[in-house]
Amino acid sequence: MKKLHSISFFFIFLVVTSLALGKQQSSADSLEQVFQNQNFPDSIRYRAIQQRTFSMIFSDGVEAKTKIQEVLKTAEKEVGKSRIYFEILQNLGIYYDVHQQTDSSLIIFSQILEESQKQGWKALEQRSFNNLGMNRLNSSDYKAAIDYFSKSLEIGRSDPNALEANFVSSISNLGLANQELELYEQAIKYHLEALEIRERLKDSNGIAISSANLGICYRLMGEEQRAEKYYRQAIENAKTAGNKVLFHRVHDNLGALYIGQKNYEKGLLMLNIALDDSDGFTPDPKMELSIVSNAAAGHIDLGQTDKALEFANRGLKVLDENPELVNYSLTLKNALAKIYFRKGNFEKGNAYLEEYQELNRQVFNEENAQLLTDLQVQYDLEKKESQIALQNAELLEKNATLQRNYFAFAALGLLLVLLIAIFIFYQNRNRRKQELLVKDRELKVKEAFIQASLESQEQERRRMAQDLHDGFGQYISALRMYVSQLKNNQAKEELKTELVSRTDSVLDEMSKEISNVVYDLMPATLIRFGLISALEDLAHRINAGEKVKLEIESQDLPDRMDELVEINLFRICQEWINNVLKYAKASHISLILSQNHGIAKLQILDDGKGFDPNVFQHSKRNGWKNITTRAELLNGKLELFTQEGQQGTELLVTFPYVHRAN
Hints:
Elements: H1 18-21, H2 28-36, H3 42-57, H4 62-78, H5 83-98, H6 102-119, H7 122-138, H8 142-158, H9 168-180, H10 184-200, H11 204-220, H12 224-241, H13 244-260, H14 264-275, H15 285-301, H16 305-321, H17 330-342, H18 346-404, H19 407-487, H20 493-521, H21 524-529, H22 531-543, E1 549-555, H23 563-584, E2 588-596, E3 599-609, H24 615-618, H25 623-633, E4 637-641, E5 647-656
Parallel strand pairs: 1-2
Antiparallel strand pairs: 2-3, 3-5, 4-5
């Protein structure tokens, strides 16, 4: 399962005294000036530098870390380890988490939480729970993340004078938790709620984060128009807020969306912006790997093999320097396999294809192992959602009691809310169970497909070994016997002549056997003269039996196509014609290859008996799966026209193809 990564950033609202700072000192330089001005109280100076270093995290990279560490040393000397010291230390933890150094950030956030609980700093305690939740979410520890976010939200909402800015990030992060668990509808509810609050607060950075996550959710749900809308809204607000990390990451996501829609011009433009470092931003290795992999895939689809290889090699360099990112290299490995197959380097192409298949199996196994954990986490999440709903109901009840003193009416309203919450809870749980069952069936289907491919390879190897053993074994034994008799000096001259003749005959038979084995592996005619010649050779072999007539027709095709295309088409023809010969009892087969306006078609028609096409859904044989896989490699559409009880069957493969002259 290939997943898009959530936009997981921290957003902490800093309360800065407007009288001291004013609207004219909102820029980075003015905040720095306030900190350097010793005439201001320490509380004002360090609030200013706290806001300054927080903004640097998303725009100045390593410089932000250096600046925060310098400020911490100064703060410890001037104000000691006071509350403002720990709030600046919080920025250092955020820096580590944003840059994937989760162990370091976990230590810092835990230290801040312990101190804030000891000193009774409720606001800092609430933010610490939120930050710990994000840290655990980035480490895929969803249960712990949900617990931390829920505690943060509970503290924020328990204060009757609390501002929305104090707990909006917890709402947003609960959406992230649902998003990571693929509960997209629930995630969207949280993200929309957070977005509404952030729009009221006119918080550009928060709007960008919520919009980006909504774009990811809608894309994974297949609602690409909505995804595009929110991605563009995220880019606009990230630019306004100066959040370079988010600005470049969302361009990568939007570029991948356009390439998936085959809108390559827009897609590659977005990816180029994502890679552009003219604004001083350098993407982290994980982001860079994603961008260059998507760019390589786009150039492959456009037939720009050399350009695709340039991006793929950049991705390999990132992977060599960061081997821990191997699980995120599926797109890169697949792109490299296609590149080298198209360049005719089948050795490298096969090597990368095997790496892709092996990595795909590893990721599949890891995701399958994670499934049971996710089920438990989802159950815990449902419990937390129910608790949050209950807490909200209790708050509503308290407010109603204070305002109107209608105890009976409040109790009835609470009971009604509880009944609705329980009803929704069970409805959602049943629906999620069904979704999990569907996903489990899909995983089993994928596993069966992989197993069938492996069995097909092993079956082909056993067949080759049997052919070599049965065929060449007897010929070699005969040759040994003849050579032994020829070595006998007492043998008559007539016998020696006869033995030489027999040896020559055995060698001819061995030559024919070798030709048959080589033809089954890879027909020489296909490599030397192209697809049409290979198909005509196949027709000659079949027509020689005088049982079935195979006719080959080509329309507006070049003399040679790309080698990978020719091989896949030949194997599809070979597999399907073998099925017709075995089961259809046909007397005539027509094979037509044509091309028109960049669309190529392969049609195979026979006059044999029809059948129920649904038989392939339950078949344990690998032939149809091999045909389907090769059609997918061509980015093609596979259609089968037949009906049980009627005569005649048509197999139609349609795929995009533009001839490139050598």
